[in-house]
Amino acid sequence: MSYLMMDLLGTEASELELSQLQHPMVGGLILFSRNYQDRQQLCKLIDSVREVAPNILIAVDHEGGRVQRFRQDFTAIPAMGDILPAAQGNIALASEWCVELGYLMAIELLSCDIDLSFAPVLDVNGISEVIGRRAFSQDPAEVTKLADRFIEGMNQAGMAAVGKHFPGHGSVQADSHVAKPVDSRTKAEIEALDMQPFKTLMAQSRLQGVMPAHVIYDQVDPNPAGFSEYWLQTVLRQQLAFDGVIFSDDLGMKGAGVVGGYQQRAQAALNAGCNMILLCNDSQGICELLNEFTWPEPVPENMAARLCSDKAQTATALANEQRWLDAKKLAETIQALKV
């Protein structure tokens, strides 16, 4: 089992980074806008990574809307919250669109040998400063329906789905990237609203991975969800019977700081039940974890490897160029209808 997903500083991997990617505890790489100039450069970068770490899981946050890391040479995916309004509230039409947009998002990444986009967002659009129109809807039933169809499109292209941010980030205002959000609702209130998309989609085996929120639900547990054995073991694994991969959110985010330094954060996330921890935007922190942290003994199965893309399915999907072109036109149409 490889436990760490790291990032890179620029558009080429340095000798140090190529060495780090071969560390036995590194199993994943997450890409950002700073790693991208154009499609040709991106493919060259990924080839250099695959040369030293052929089985590494390569991921990116490429949801659509304002969270889309690659722009030039990629189609602008609409924000998920713009889809239903563009369909004038017609949930059946929006559902059809979601299949094609999920396919479009996935196939354009897979064509560059990127395995995974951390998507879809399953939060409700409530009071959150960081979620907003990243969410499909304010209604958890609509979130569930549209996310299910978006996942279907992703799967048709050969990409797994990772739902975020469990058990729901939409109903707490503060942004966990820069603050330490606390949600003081009861578990019953959280279950009745925010958890519904996660609960339903997990029951239908639609999610291969999940990412918990750096939010403290203080009426339930004193720790942020991603560092909570209660949320990850009792709720996710036992009550919801989720058997996929649990990713931590970025350990460099402000919301993770309540746990301590990077080694304390890594230990807490792993103890709570995360299968892979993310550390981004801090190269010194990555060096600290790789050189100083005492990692758990590897287990026989690398769970994260389950989420590597289906190369054969992707090759078949890529052969259908007309579907890709039609999906591109759909994305452009929805952008033009944005209200």
Give an overview in words:
By secondary structure, this protein is α/β, with parallel strands linked by helices. Helix content is 39%, strand content 11%. It has 12 helices and 10 strands. The chain has helices spanning 15-20, 39-52, 83-86, 91-110, 140-157, 187-192, 196-203, 229-239, 262-272, 283-292, 311-318, 321-336, and strands spanning 4-6, 26-31, 57-60, 62-64, 67-68, 116-117, 162-166, 209-212, 245-250, 276-278. The strands form 2 sheets. It has an 8-stranded parallel sheet with strand order 6-3-2-1-10-9-8-7, with helices on one face. A two-stranded antiparallel sheet has the order 4-5. Helix 9 links the parallel strand 9 (245-250) and strand 10 (276-278). Helix 5 (140-157) packs across helix 7. The longest helix is centred in the N-terminal third of the chain and has 20 residues, at 91-110. The protein is globular. The relative contact order is 0.15. The mean pLDDT is 92.
Question: Layout of SSEs?
Answer:
Layout: E1 4-6, H1 15-20, E2 26-31, H2 39-52, E3 57-60, E4 62-64, E5 67-68, H3 83-86, H4 91-110, E6 116-117, H5 140-157, E7 162-166, H6 187-192, H7 196-203, E8 209-212, H8 229-239, E9 245-250, H9 262-272, E10 276-278, H10 283-292, H11 311-318, H12 321-336
Measured distance between first and last alpha carbons: 46 Å
Measured as a percent range, the helix fraction is 25-40%
Tell the overall outline.
globular
* Tally of DSSP β-strands: 10
Order of helices and strands: EHEHEEEHHEHEHHEHEHEHHH
Strand line-up of the largest beta sheet: 6-3-2-1-10-9-8-7
Rg over C-alpha atoms, rounded to the nearest angstrom: 19 Å
Q: What ranges have pLDDT less than 50 throughout 5 or more consecutive residues?
A: none
**Can you summarize the main beta sheet?**
8 strands, parallel
**Which whole number gives the mean pLDDT?**
92
Number of helical runs? 12
> What is the SS-derived class?
alpha/beta
Amount of beta strand: 5-15%
